[in-house]
Amino acid sequence: MREPGRRPRRRRRSDQNLTAQGVEGAIEQPSILFVDDDEALGRAFARRFRREGFEVVVTNSPIEAIKLSQRRLFSTVVTDLRMPVMSGAEMIEHVAGVQPDVSFVVVTGVPNLDLDRSPPAELSTVGIVAKPWDDDELLSVIRRAVELTTRRRAETSASRGVDPLALVVEDDPDDAALLVTRLRRCGWRSQVVHRLQEARLVAGSASFDAMLVDLSLPDARGLDAVVRLRQVAPQVPLIVFSGMDDDTTARQAIRAGAHDFLVKGKDEPRLGRALVLGVERSHYTRRLTSLAHYDQLTGLANRLTLREAVRRAQTAAAVSGHATALLYVDLDRFKTVNDSLGHEAGDALLQKVADRLRASIRDDDTAARLGGDEFAIVLRQLDQPDEASIVAERLLDALRAPFELPQATVRVTCSVGVVVKEAGEQATLDDLLRQADMAMYDAKRSGRNRLARPRQRSERPGVARIALENELRDAVAEERFSLVYQPQFALPGPELCGYEALLRWTRLDGTRVSPGTFIPLLEDMGLVTQVGRWVLRESCRQLAEWRRRGLPGHVRMAVNVSGQDFERDDLVGSVRRALDEHGIEPSALELEITESILMRDTERTNVTLEALKREGVPIAIDDFGTGYSSLAYLQRFAVSRLKIDRVFVQTLEGDAEGTIAEAVIALGHRMGMEVLAEGVETEAQLRFLKSVGCDMVQGFLLGRPEAEPQIALVA
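Above: the chain sequence. Below: its structure as tokens.
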């Protein structure tokens, strides 16, 4: 009903836009808000992208951009970061507070410097495009941003299903009728109650999109209604609709939890906008809560939520007498996927891994992502401690199956550390993670793709790692490493044609450390290039020494090169110096690199490979078949030899594996490369490789890696 003496007021166009779009979450024509203090650039942008069918609104003021976002919805916001008065990153956070579903595109003249200034990833920044931009590149990024906004708003609209519902808490029938009428005009349904007690019962049992509350109720005075309704419905936007036009009361209401304060007879035209902004702020608050408690890539719990899950599990175990377990899951060789296929493929793989982890545990258990490719799982209420190992085996089986990614089909496995606590045994999350992490590394050292439990009275992993790093650092300074050499044979002979130099390290107490343990440590510590130079010099020295003792001149030396070695600008110079120092011709030294190095930075890689080729140094691709490289890339690079990974050799008796090995050999020959098969351990494998034309072999069947004194040279 209309208030006495008040003419109906036509809503402003901005109110009509905001309320209609805010309820339906749809935009017929995609719209762009372009924000840049360069007015000429803004005009050029508008001309270009209006031709692509976009509605373009341009402003050179971040403050004005925030005001525009409060009046209407946009499909995407394209903004510079460096502007006077307010930065683009600050503006993005303000706009996201009003329109949480909108996506952003950043355009900047200094992208490398502005990476640190860019807004948080959770604010849906789809891309950063350098100025001056390529129109097609920017158009592609904008279209992705519009698609993301449209999809998120469609999901929000679908979740609502019907017109939003407001709870009206008003004891005056005329005021209540007026609110119901205005709500209907804004596309809202309503339910009216007259007392606070009734409102609390209804709000706690039904789902409302907003609450409109008078401060003067029969059973409540002042801010009591706000405080008590927030207790039963803390996530629902609450708007005070009061007859008191008092700034002090309004500020107190906002502090108590109200989203807005409207005055009867004065602020009715603002109702639609207040509802939309209240709902959007509520969505944003829920999203921030999700950001605080869940990993945004996988949707799994984060460390904060995991800590609470451990606390609740141990509390329940103390009452029920059941056991609690924590599983520490780390993917094996995940870095190869990232390096070979890119981070987008790595992210897709992590999401699929998370889905399989969820499917492998009960609803009451908690799966969390700790970061990178590391996950943790809390198992509650275990009847028997051995149940934890059963779940771990289930995880291992789940992850063994291939993963279908847009870029390729990949296989990864995992290593799992298992820690079980009986009822009454208390431990903090940090303690559990340390113990499970230590067990997980035991599983990796034992060959990966398995589970392990902590060893009894084992040293804390942090202390053990520090001691290992300190001794390793001393070993680098004093060159306390050794090399062993595994022979390589040409077929069909077999005839000795080369040796592969393999790095070894023994601690001062006589403990031999696996290369799978100390080489990643050298990489983490930034010392692997220093060790790589020593390996080059020592390998060339040894080859020269063997030649003086009668080793045939055609026998070459193969040396592995790490990714960090290959990224050095002086790699070619180091190779040349090592050869010159010991009088070795370049063709006698073969450098082995992995497919992941080949794919990491193709232009720079090609420059380095071409330089080595000009020097006459042959290049071999190690572990071929496990790095997901494109065959097109192999044709680009100066590669002399492919080494078939032992995975495809050790099961050659199977038809599938034999087909793969035969295909790799045929591929290598077709591309003008020699092919060497690693890991040959049986006569059957050797016969098969001979039959399909493999050029060379290496493996325990013909020769194990041995130190120099044990090697009998063939003159």
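Residues 340 and 629 are 6 Å apart (CA to CA).
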